[in-house]
TrEMBL record:
It holds the Pfam family Acyl-CoA_dh_1. Its cofactor is FAD. This is Acyl-CoA dehydrogenase family protein. It comes from Nonomuraea helvata. The lineage of its organism: Bacteria, Bacillati, Actinomycetota, Actinomycetes, Streptosporangiales. Keywords: FAD, Flavoprotein, Membrane, Oxidoreductase, Transmembrane, Transmembrane helix.
Length: 311
């Protein structure tokens, strides 16, 4: 497998050439679906650095591919309970998956039957759920896909009505699955924020007022410098996010707020054109806003960080 920077460059070029390629094609051509899957189970056996490189490029392109829930969270969940027989289908991209964490829905498991509703879940064919201390797989009785503000990340409502489950193993790993999801999301946020900064700089160099590029004005210079600091600091936080719960909480808080700030300032720097429907700036702000709720708002990450730091 290529080094993280080289892998990121491959993903960026592929998404630029084939932005509408379906997940199965993307997974087959680039191999990203099996990035964290051990080689003996059909994957590449890579680690957090490669995951972050791919996630950053997906965030930069606002890709709708289910990398976060399928290639990161579901793979970690299955490996943690040694459900290795399900990994090859995820690794080759033939099956997508989603993971429901404790507290994501009102669910009850009685005599092997699951009942309840998960109001918001990322889209995936194989549904893995942490319920009553177990990791189980179940087929929802009904799925309802939302029309969301951020259409680049589909969300679904999952309903279970006395649904039989397949017990996969102990559910003690859910916190690690969540933290790896936060780490991958943080890398996505860095990619989106970096792209916003790039487009803001390009516009500031090109747009002229009073016979000068607006980037030559001190107010714009300072604004862009502040955004650069946010992006680089967020990248550092995202790079450390996979280490443990504390670093994941730091990244979950900082990268979320950094992306929101950079996406908002990108619109401001673009001026009138930045608020038009035709310009892509609004899409990044929508993704930043939806990302801010995916694993809880920044305040929730900071509360978890305080609890962790104080024991």
């Amino acid at each position: 497998m290529a080094l993280p920077d080289e892998l990121g460059a491959v993903v960026r070029d592929y998404l630029a050439d084939r932005p509408d390629a379906p997940w199965r094609t993307f997974a087959r051509d680039v191999g990203v679906a099996g990035l964290l899957v051990p080689e003996e189970h059909g994957g590449a056996g890579c680690g957090p650095a490669e995951t972050a490189a791919v996630a950053e490029e997906l965030g930069r392109a606002l890709s709708p591919h289910p990398f976060l829930q399928t290639a990161v969270m579901a793979v970690e969940a299955l490996m943690s309970c040694e459900a290795f027989h399900l990994l090859p289908a995820l690794a080759d991209g033939s099956v997508t998956a989603t993971v429901v964490l404790p507290g994501d829905g009102a669910l009850r498991l009685e005599s092997g039957l699951l009942t309840g509703v998960v109001p918001y879940a990322m889209a995936g064919e194989l549904v893995l759920l942490y319920v009553d201390g177990l990791l189980v797989a179940a087929v929802p009785a009904r799925r309802r896909t939302y029309r969301t503000m951020d259409e680049s990340r589909p969300l679904q409502e999952l309903t279970f009505q006395g649904t039989p489950v397949r017990r996969l193993g102990d559910g003690a790993s859910w916190a690690r699955v969540r933290d790896l999801g936060i780490a991958a999301l943080a890398a996505e946020q860095v990619g989106g924020a970096r792209r916003c900064l790039e487009t803001a700089v390009e516009h500031a160099k090109r747009r002229q007022q009073f016979g000068r590029p607006i980037g030559s004005f001190q107010a714009i210079k300072h604004k862009l410098a502040d955004l650069l600091l946010l992006v680089e600091s967020a990248r550092s936080a995202a790079g450390a996010a996979a280490r443990d719960e504390m670093f994941a909480a730091i990244a979950g808080s900082y990268c979320t707020e950094a992306y929101l700030a950079v996406a908002g300032e990108n619109i401001q720097i673009h001026g009138g054109i930045g608020i038009t429907w035709e310009h892509p700036a609004h899409r990044y702000l929508k993704r930043a806003t939806s990302d801010a709720q995916l694993f809880g708002p920044p305040q929730a990450h900071r509360a978890r960080l305080v609890a962790h730091a104080l024991g």
